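Recap quiz, item 2
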Amino acid sequence: MSEEITPTGKKIALDCMGGDLGPSEAIAGAALAIREGFIGPNDKLILVGHEDNLRQLAAEHRVLKSKRVEFKHAATVVNPDDAAMTVIKSKRDSSMLIALDMLKAGQADLVISTGNTKALVAAGTIKVRPMEGAERPALAAIMPRREGHFVMLDVGANPEAKPEHLVHNAVLGSIYAQSALGITNPRVGLLSVGTEEGKGGARINRTHTLLKAMGDKINYVGPVEGFDVFGDACDVVVTDGFTGNVILKTLEGLVYMVRDMVGKKVKSNPVYLAGGIAMFPLLRDLKGKLKPEKYGGAPLLGLSSLVMKAHGSSNRQSIASAIRLGLEAVGHDANRRMLVALAEANAVISSTPEEE
Amino acid sequence: MSEEITPTGKKIALDCMGGDLGPSEAIAGAALAIREGFIGPNDKLILVGHEDNLRQLAAEHRVLKSKRVEFKHAATVVNPDDAAMTVIKSKRDSSMLIALDMLKAGQADLVISTGNTKALVAAGTIKVRPMEGAERPALAAIMPRREGHFVMLDVGANPEAKPEHLVHNAVLGSIYAQSALGITNPRVGLLSVGTEEGKGGARINRTHTLLKAMGDKINYVGPVEGFDVFGDACDVVVTDGFTGNVILKTLEGLVYMVRDMVGKKVKSNPVYLAGGIAMFPLLRDLKGKLKPEKYGGAPLLGLSSLVMKAHGSSNRQSIASAIRLGLEAVGHDANRRMLVALAEANAVISSTPEEE
């Protein structure tokens, strides 16, 4: 942290270029975050992207004429379909990579980007070193359930998680659920294919043993099934980045399919049409509730600095909400508590013998 | 096959006891399957369960007074929450295990059960030997998409599938999609977390290499993401039994959540109520369409005889449809074609070197 601001202030680098709605929406989101008071008087918001363009867009928002707002130029943009490796190798001057470089250099405390998830996860993992005690970061999504929300992680950073990575996900997700959802003692469940011990294979069994061995260091409620996640079985669903990503994408695909089916059905029959018109606000609400990534942003937990992914289609409200969520995730003494929890987890991992 | 029936006839053992709606619904499903002509004149339907009970229920359906219908007594029942290992060890006299024993002994050509999935998968895998060339069976579900249906496998038999198992799933699922969905040259996709090569980890990469090496033996279209499965990317989605089971259960959980949310919303607001009443038939249709296991049954592919799981909540129509689907799955020369395809796949697997 630099000298100019008080120790409690945070510097947020906002990648303004990667979203589907373009930089004007990112700038509007930044203005909203200031107006809503998400960005405190000691915080700094650094708008990263094509500087001339951003300054022109910012001129429309009086609230952005503030000492709290800075600009950082980036000549290029990461496109939604750019391969992750291409971005890392040949888009060093993109707003995403420049924002990550600022994080790496300590010029920012957190990065928020609406850009290409795969590129952000890959570049974030390479550019920012893991938190002490962690090996691989996990992308943590906040998802809706019957009542309220839950945290699911990993939704796409580490597809081949080992038991120790899953245990790290459990402790990191537990602390994130406290800060982001305000749940005091989050119940942690391990996603599996059955709740009997011994189901799910060797990797899940070892993880289950380790999580049980954590004792009162974590509120572990045991294995949970896919069916349970939208119920009230737990507040943190732990899984590997392959399964979690597939679930997230499949749910998103299903929501789009339902929307299309409803649309078609409604048009096919006058009875449905009358009902459909009355139901539109409800269907829109449901669609919003069921689009998991819309809930603010998804942080990459387990890195020494915070990288947060916001949905590509984020509007100004979603961008402001991602800023708020990012500041909450780095607040509440979360970083120190994650370091302590990882050390405790690693002590349990190294002292718990592998079963036969 | 016994001498009394012609070589084209099949003997179906129907476990009548495990469904949520009880044996009366299973018996009604059996009667419907005969009335609908699903069971041919040379086929035999063996009703397995408490014989006195079943005979009494069958007396209500004139169509069941047929030489095509037989009874097989079983003293006990597998309960929905019985642990798989408990069933195998201590419920040998249950309708499920007796039906599987008939399959093992060649007294039946296929078993259909609405009972406890985990017990059926575990007991089926132990009782019935794998098809030559296969190692572990895969549970194949037919699921709805925007237009029509697709096959997803494995949805729960083999949680820790190796690349060779995934390749077996690909060829078995392809043949099943031909017989069950009537798709001539099904497009096969490998579920992954990105469509770039190299995403998804070593296991997915090796499977991708092997499937490409299959050449024109299979219509492999490459990796698909969760988002694509409800679109038109492919007809057969190949995955391991952990991921597939979690997807299936999560989707089911989501559908129930949506139903509850819609119900609550509709009651909360007179505008929604008016719309909701008009929309009820639509919502019921959607619920039916989105409950994946309702589409007939899910066969355990890769065993030397067919074991088919029908949904626990199956009504008579679903049970009749599972019987039809089971007969289709063992028809079309499917068994011989699966043996040929597995041999071809194994030749490719053993001749394709592991990459560095």
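The domain at 1-128 of chain A is CATH 3.40.718.10 (Isopropylmalate Dehydrogenase).
The first strand of chain A starts at residue 11 and ends at 15.
End of item.
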